[in-house]
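Please, structure for the following, as tokens.
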Amino acid sequence: MATEAPVGSIDTKHADTIHDAQMDYFGKRLATCSSDRTIRIFDVEDDGRHSLVQELRGHEGPVWMVAWAHPSFGSMLASCSHDHKVIIWKETAAGWEKFKEYGMTSDEHASSVNSVAWAPYSLGYPMLACASADGDISVLSYKDSKWSPDKIVSAHKGGVNAVSWAPLLSVGPLGQAAEDDAPRVAPRLISCGCDDELKIWNFREDEVNGGWRASQMPTPVLKDMRYSGWYRDVAWAPSIGLSSSTIACCTQNGEVLIWTQHSSDSEAWSCVELPTRQADLSAEPGPAEPVWRVSWSLTGNLLAVSSGESNVTLYKEQLDSQRSAVAGRDATHDTPAISSWKIVGEVGGP
């Protein structure tokens, strides 16, 4: 497979390394963030033309990540930085302004905030999870015209690298979406950190046992050895009404793992490791270079993986019964398994 060339490029004019770039829900706006401590928002046209809308300044250190809120809550953007802060920006008639600033004191966050993620909009109000190198996860909720913080203390020893929300959807018989008046599933999120662990957090809203409760994911077996190393990123796939859950994660050691749970929460998770580049198909899965980020398409059948210094690999799930895909290894057993994910594109690399 030939390496794909980018269809276009944007000169952001950032003065230092760009750490994240995110399109909004409609694909009409692009937000970028950089070690130059700024965030830039661009209007992007279908023909590739673009124009700078505004440069946002407010962080005092490198800005690691940006995340757009669902448009039903207006034009809102969250950013997180090495300066321990999370800033939620909101577009007004006068332009983009700070809507909420969190992390100003050590009891909020005492170290770099590495990741931010918005909860599904079907929750009914904005909720933002923030992962910090101090080991804590903060959850900010906006209700009754005010922001309320909650905190998961000591979520991961050594620091939290990423958080991602589960789809907030009830599933009916045979994978059909439940009626609008059906009870919604309680919010859940998954986190990863420097302690070799993935954890799913379930929210219980009651007076006696309220708050966030963790359930730890099993430790995968890779290349006949139990995995040990940092998880760099984790992403829960969007739901399309199927009664299953899919999670992608990546590691400092170069692995990309796909976790799947069918039917119910009580069923065990299965795990398959993927090679991250087309050049690795004839070798054991998992290059030596770190894998930094995993990201799903809106339909959950495409997965983008960034690794090394300039490599992006795109996977597509194979839904046919033959599944003519790359050879993976079942990470929960010692026997080989066939992955249902096939590399369909690459950008960068040699």
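Residues 170-183, 281-287, 320-339 have pLDDT under 50 and may be disordered. The longest strand covers residues 50-57.
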